[in-house]
Amino acid sequence: MLLRNARLPDGTVRDLLLCERHGLVREVGLPGELPPGPGGNDGPNETVGMDLSGFLLLPAPAEPHAHLDKALSWELVGAPPGDLPAAITAWRAYAERVTEEEIARRARRALDELVMNGVTAVRTHVDVLPGEDPLRGLRALLRLRDDDAVRARIAVQVAVLHGDAPDALLREALWLGADVLGGCPHLAPDPVAAVDQALRLAGEFGVPVDLHADENLDPRSGDLRLLAARLAARPDDRPPRVTASHCVSLGVLPAAEAARLAKEVAAADVGVVALPLTNLGLQGRDHPVSTPRGLTAVRALLDAGVTVAAGGDNVRDPFNPVGRLDGLETAALLVAAAHLTPDEALHAVTNAARAVLGLPAAGPWQGAVADLLAVRAGSLGEALSSACADRVTFRAGRVVSRTRVHRELL
């Protein structure tokens, strides 16, 4: 496929030749200077052309932290907005009766929305559920992950999420095919044992770890520090990748203390996922005056050299009644709430997110993976501000979704 007249993030206008066979950007050149490709202009390998005049071509967003088992359940659960404990209580009550088929239906709708917004890779956490069949949600997500139509559009990683599950149940989840081992140490009866269990079982199965860490405003919360210390103690015996998501309490520590902890996290090679939309909504409700932002210390982590990604987290469920399943929304929130530049915010939702997921870099550059998002905008600032729905999503050099918008003044 030959993309013509695409505006790149640096403001330049270029043509790009995509190679579907290898899923890469084969060449980038000035408008009109690239040949049509090895297939010529006729025959079975004919190169398809697309004029992207008026579009900004970006690396496709990746979603490093979703909860597709809960997505789009706000009206079903009937939960009023509240803090994290209230949201957990409401979801647990509903989860007693939720079925595998219902989870699969809502998750498929959410995956479709992600793709149409430009997302080509997602990691979704899925709860160990109450009842006689605690892994029914996991089976629903694994079915979707392995569906050929889904795989063609978006890469799905499934992380099993639990508060205090026994080894036997987590081993069963990993045998079924869970890609990542998750957990919530700050909600476990023994946080130290919870972290040790995650590292031990993930090492046993050779899968990454992604923990919900310090999802609170208590400066004494110690998940992130504990995780970094445990990894430092076992440098030659660790899972392939370790991620800490949320890390909200880091944002309320004194600056010097936050900087020290950020350096420990960097030394332990732990990636951090910031989740602005849900954390800004859930945290700080008991602080009606001078309400804390409820966001991790993004700048301190970046300054320490930590890989910082960002995701949408919960979308239209008891934990968050709003959300668009759109990486551009997350990036805009990082600019407003974390004081990042637009370029830094874009990186957090694109290639930093891909790094956390263990995926190679994508973007409109020669040799990069051809996972791309074309959005109608003249600049990155405009794209983050308007988040225009007029978009084209490319996965591995193929168009997998197209949304056209018609607007008129009468």
Short characterization:
This protein is of the alpha/beta class and about 400 residues long. The protein has helices at about 75, 85-95, 100-115, 135-145, 150-155, 165-175, 190-205, 225-230, 255-265, 275-280, 300-305, 325-335, 340-350, 350-355, 380-385, and strands at about 1-5, 15-20, 25-30, 50, 55-60, 60-65, 120-125, 155-160, 180-185, 210-215, 240-245, 270-275, 310, 370-375, 390-395, 400-405. The chain contains 15 helices and 16 strands.
CATH architecture of the largest domain: Alpha-Beta Barrel
Q: How many strands, which pairing sense, and closed or not: the largest β-sheet?
A: 8 strands, parallel
Strands, count: 16
CATH class of the largest domain: Alpha Beta
Estimated share of beta-strand residues = 15-25%
How would you write the strand order of the largest sheet?
A: 6-7-8-9-10-11-12-13
Distance between the termini: 38 Å
Helix content: 25-40%
How many structural domains does the protein architecture include?
A: 2
- CATH topology value of the largest domain: TIM Barrel
Description:
This protein has helices at residues 74-77, 84-95, 100-116, 136-145, 148-153, 167-176, 191-205, 223-232, 255-267, 276-282, 298-303, 327-337, 342-349, 351-356, 380-386; strands at residues 2-7, 13-19, 24-29, 49-51, 55-59, 62-66, 121-127, 155-161, 180-183, 209-213, 242-246, 270-274, 308-310, 372-376, 391-395, 398-403. With 410 residues, the protein is α/β, with parallel strands linked by helices. The protein folds into two domains: 2-59 and 363-403, Urease, subunit C, domain 1 (Roll); 62-356, TIM Barrel (Alpha-Beta Barrel). It starts with a strand and ends in a 7-residue tail after the last strand. The model is unreliable at 39-44 (pLDDT under 50).
